[in-house]
UniProtKB/TrEMBL annotation:
GO molecular function terms listed in the Swiss-Prot or TrEMBL record: citrate transmembrane transporter activity
Biological source species: Formivibrio citricus
Protein name: Citrate transporter, CitMHS family
TM spans (from-to): 6-22, 29-45, 65-84, 182-201, 237-253
Primary site of residence: membrane
Ranges of residues in domain Citrate transporter-like: 18-278
Species lineage: Bacteria, Pseudomonadati, Pseudomonadota, Betaproteobacteria, Neisseriales
């Protein structure tokens, strides 16, 4: 079969795939699985060869799928243990009524929560924690979601964030090949967002002035679990923080493959924070967040 036929079939497959997804006639996972199979059979690939091609594809994307799965489990465990909660409290206490501090604090919070790799969590936590402060001061209501969106757009290129994972799977690349060269760009992008937050804050300060008030001390939890308070491990904040910093440093210097680092990190995080029976419950709870992304990678 010539390359032109394969190319035309490939583009046709993408068009059909996008139509079915956008018209909501098929889910993304089902479309990714079934449309390529139908296309391959229509092109005359027999069962034995087709099966071998599919298994080769699964083997190639396995490291990416494993890395994303355990990254989500790791950060989900840290959220459950309350790693980010004291940081939120400190930010809220530090900003007082200064629009500049509020805007920069919003950008900082969005940066930290974006490490989870789940955009919805970033928006939910950032907006929930900072909305009351923004509204009380009278800051332009567009600034809060804009800062969360901008910073999450920068941080969402982490390998376990979803889009980058799909790029790795489709191009058959290792995470370090794509992610490591992007780190300087992520740093510059984050600095730009902080600069923009400072600029917007200065503009709002000129308009509103500084409104002094104290943080009401209400607790802000990142976890969405109804039993979140029972899962908190505030006494283990520092060991969790050190573990996360060491893990991120190991990722940047490529000490080990990313998948292996997150496997080890997840095992340590679960062992440090929860007893054996509780570990299984945490895996089940956070696995629900991992499955939609991982299933698309393997599909």
């Amino acid at each position: 079969m010539n390359q032109m036929t394969l190319a035309v079939a490939g583009f046709a497959m993408i068009v059909v795939f996008m139509y079915l997804i956008m018209s909501k006639k098929m889910s993304a996972m089902n479309a990714l699985i079934l449309i390529p199979i139908v296309t391959a059979l229509a092109l005359g690939f027999h069962d034995a060869k087709l099966g071998k091609m599919m298994m080769d594809g699964v083997r190639r994307v396995a490291p990416t799928g494993i890395m994303i799965c355990f990254a989500i489990l790791y950060f989900g465990t840290m959220i459950d243990a309350g790693l980010f909660d004291p940081i939120i409290e400190r930010i809220l206490k530090a900003v007082h009524g200064d629009p500049v501090k509020v805007c920069v604090g919003t950008a900082l919070l969005a940066t930290l929560i974006s490490l989870d790799g789940d955009g919805s969590t970033t928006y939910l936590v950032t907006c929930t924690a900072m909305f009351g402060v923004h509204r009380r001061i009278g800051i332009n209501p567009l600034i809060l979601p804009s800062l969360a969106l901008l910073e999450n757009s920068v941080m969402n290129i982490i390998p376990w964030g979803g889009p980058t994972g799909r790029v790795l799977a489709s191009l058959h690349l290792e995470a370090s090949q794509v992610f490591t060269p992007l780190i300087p760009g992520m740093v510059l992008g984050t600095l730009f967002v902080f600069g923009l937050a400072y600029f917007w804050g200065k503009r709002e300060r000129a308009r509103l002035g500084v409104i002094e008030f104290s943080h009401d001390g209400s607790h802000h939890s990142v976890s969405e679990d109804p039993d979140a308070e029972k899962l908190k491990r505030p006494e283990k904040f520092w060991i969790n923080a050190v573990l996360t910093i060491v893990l991120l440093a190991a990722l940047m210097v490529e000490l080990l493959p990313l998948a292996i680092l997150f496997i080890i990190g997840t095992a340590l995080a679960l062992m440090i924070n929860y007893k054996t029976k509780e570990q299984g419950a945490r895996i089940v709870a956070n696995g629900a967040n991992a499955m939609p992304v991982v299933s698309l990678i393997f599909a």
